[in-house]
Design goal:
This protein has 500 residues and is an alpha/beta fold. It is built from 19 helices and 13 strands. 48% of the residues lie in helices and 16% in strands. Homodimer. Its EC number is 3.6.1.11.
């Protein structure tokens, strides 16, 4: 398979999607699509535990996807899990088995990040003018975004999906006013916290993406209409469904067998959206999460990585000392480059994560200096960080949590897709960079030489500099002690210059 192909996999609550494409002159050219309705959320019980049967459906689908991915470069593939894999108690088990099949990490994205990527997918594939409202109804959640051109202005993810609503309100299989009314009422309840903000901001055009809205459009087209969704048309569809009394007996022109089980719950979610937000009309867009994932490749390659903008935004928001952040970031990057090969840290994603952690390690000063490392970790772990998936966000929080003071190993939490031993090595690099800049002065450090051998680091410094900077040397010696408690060794070696 040619190396210029990119692949995105969306592990949704109802369906798994694979899209393979090329990006030509900033435009997406789809060359293949695969889709399987695995009904993952349907197999999640009241304790949020996925059944073995549901996991098997998903894994069987991924086996087919793995065959299609054969030949693609690993860095040309993005695989993202959404609502069900965010909340399922045994999601780590599914993800472990999935990785064995795909041989590629799976990133779990937050609802906010899912909404952002959906908006990018729609904005890049649909010509729009003015402000647009984008709505995507998934199996477990619904994402709503208002934006202009390629920039989202507000976005949210609400817990109202066609699979979850089907289990909650249509489990008896009946199509009646009572079931629809209960589902719509819950949808309105879910929307209530965002209504004022969204209605006050307003929009010129409303676009809907993904399967539920596509199915509604096909039902309207089959009746000889133009496919534009309006509240009267949706109400008419509801009455047509109620007239047939049961979901399993539902027969409407344009309704496929695979969409029949969830069409009523999807319609209920749509009715709540139209009623709550006062939507007059909605058009369908082909763009969705997977297209947003594909365009994210181009943004990162062109130096427009949204994660970098997010990191700078956090630094601005918390009034971080930019000069100190820059010092620590530069030194952390320099030290990383010297040991990355020996320490097996050459994966593309490690260096930027280390540098962003260095930039943001003092975020917690906005709370207070005492336990700044804990405060920084809390802020980074619980903030909305556009562009970062959940694992990347946890890595940032983990690095800054252990950037100073004694290391309490029991407070370390493993991060999916990032081996513990690699995270500990990144932590050691960050700690060393922070320790070296304790005096917060420019042009203080000499040329640094760092070597790594297993868990031993050797830092070589000029002998004259060491004599002139006893306070910093004490700081490094203190760092030696912290490391010894972890079974690490930091050797401080002096080098004499020709002038000595």
């Amino acid at each position: 398979m040619p190396n210029n192909l990119l692949a995105a996999i969306d592990l949704g609550s109802n369906s798994f999607h694979l899209v393979i494409a090329r990006i030509l002159d900033g435009r997406l050219q789809i060359v293949d699509r695969l889709k399987d309705r695995v009904r993952l959320a349907e197999g999640m019980d009241d304790n949020r535990c996925l059944s073995e049967e549901a996991m098997r459906r998903g894994l069987d689908c991924l086996s087919l996807f793995a065959e299609r991915l054969s030949g693609l470069q690993p860095d040309a593939i993005r695989i993202s899990g959404t609502y069900t894999l965010r909340v399922a108690s045994n999601a780590p088990e599914f993800l472990r088995r999935a990785r064995e099949i795909l041989h590629h990490p799976i990133e779990i994205i937050s609802g906010q990040e899912e909404a952002r990527l959906i908006y990018q997918g729609v904005a890049h594939t649909q010509h729009t003018e003015g402000r647009i409202l984008v709505i995507d109804i998934g199996g477990g959640s619904t994402e709503l975004i208002i934006g202009e051109q390629f920039t989202p202005q507000v976005l949210t993810s609400r817990k109202m999906g066609c699979v979850t609503f089907n289990k909650q309100f249509f489990a008896n299989g009946k199509l009646n006013e009572k079931n629809f009314a209960a589902a719509v009422l819950e949808g309105l309840h879910q929307l209530e916290p965002i209504l004022t903000q969204y209605q006050s901001l307003g929009w010129d055009t409303c676009l809907g993406s993904s399967g539920t809205i596509k199915s509604m459009r096909e039902l309207l087209l089959a009746q000889g209409l133009d496919g534009e969704l309006t509240l009267p048309r949706l109400e008419q569809l509801k009455q047509q469904m109620i007239a047939q009394k049961r979901i399993d007996a539902l027969a409407l022109p344009g309704l496929t067998d695979d969409r029949r089980p969830l069409i009523a719950s999807g319609l209920a979610v749509l009715l709540a959206l139209f009623q709550g937000l006062g939507i007059e009309r909605m058009e369908y867009s082909d763009g969705a999460l997977r297209e947003g994932l594909l365009y994210s490749f181009e943004q990162r390659d062109s130096g427009q990585d949204i994660r970098a903008r997010t990191a700078f935004g956090v630094a601005e928001l918390y009034h971080i000392d930019k000069a100190q952040a820059a010092r620590v970031e530069a030194t952390a990057g320099q030290l990383f480059d010297q040991v990355a090969a020996d320490w097996q840290l050459l994966e593309e994603g490690y260096r930027p994560l280390l540098c962003w952690a260095a930039m943001l390690h003092e975020t917690g000063l906005a709370i207070n200096y005492t336990s700044v490392q804990r405060h920084s970790a809390y802020i980074l772990e619980n903030s909305d960080l556009p562009g970062f998936n959940q694992e990347e966000q946890q890595v940032l929080a983990t690095l800054v949590r252990f950037h100073r003071k004694a290391i309490k190993k029991g407070e370390f939490n493993s991060v999916l897709n990032y081996p513990d031993w690699q995270l500990w090595r990144l932590i050691r690099i960050l700690r060393l960079a922070v320790a070296l800049h304790h005096r917060r002065l420019d042009h203080l450090l000499p040329e640094l030489s760092l070597q790594a051998s297993d868990e031993t680091l050797t830092l070589t410094l000029p002998a004259a500099w060491c004599e002139q900077n006893r306070l910093l040397m004490q700081n490094l010696e203190r760092e030696q002690g912290y490391g010894q408690n972890m079974g690490w060794q930091l050797l401080l070696q002096t080098a004499h210059s020709d002038a000595d």
